[in-house]
Amino acid sequence: LPDLSQDNDSSISKSNKPITFALIGGISKEKGVDIYFDAIEKVNKILNDKANIAEFLLIGRNSGSSFANSMIKRASRISNVRYIGQKNREDMGELYSSRIDVVVVASRNETMSMTATEAMVFDHIAIVSNISGICDYITNYYDGLIFESENSDELASKILWCIKHPEKVHSMGINTRKTYKKEFSMEKFSSRLDIAIKEKSNS
Predict the structure, then answer these.
(1) 37 near 45, Cβ under 8 Å?
(2) For residue 197, what pLDDT band results from cuts at 50, 70 and 90?
(3) What are the residues facing 125 on neighbouring strands?
């Protein structure tokens, strides 16, 4: 992992607003919350006294399981992590618009990430594990970042890259909107549905 604590010329020391990462979804082992926290702790160790330049949100329902409760307790012990509970769509829209910069999808098992797709709508990139179906639509360092599933070292490295390159994160966010319009808009969905119907009728 790069030692950003020694990078005095980096833009990480020039921004007044912390860059905010968010993992969104039910608090479960499948969602990789523990992987997320492992990566955050590694990032904080590297940033040292600059750790406040990054904020990490955990957003989702507490199922009451022993795993969920242990993760919420763990969140309370990390200074720049905030567990803010489950949010409705209106609240999420506000968070995407005014607070969240990067979405993290650390899932151990995920067919298609709705949170990554929602992030695209708001011009935000996602850091996604390579087992997620959304990876088929993301180009590394163009409209998102991909890391090896369950590899917290690699996730930490991607997080650090975002912290060091906020201007690139912004330009990549613009690209995510292009990807969304190309792959996930209603027009694209209708087109795919029409093709599927025609193929079915001709079979």
Answers:
(1) no
(2) very low
(3) 102
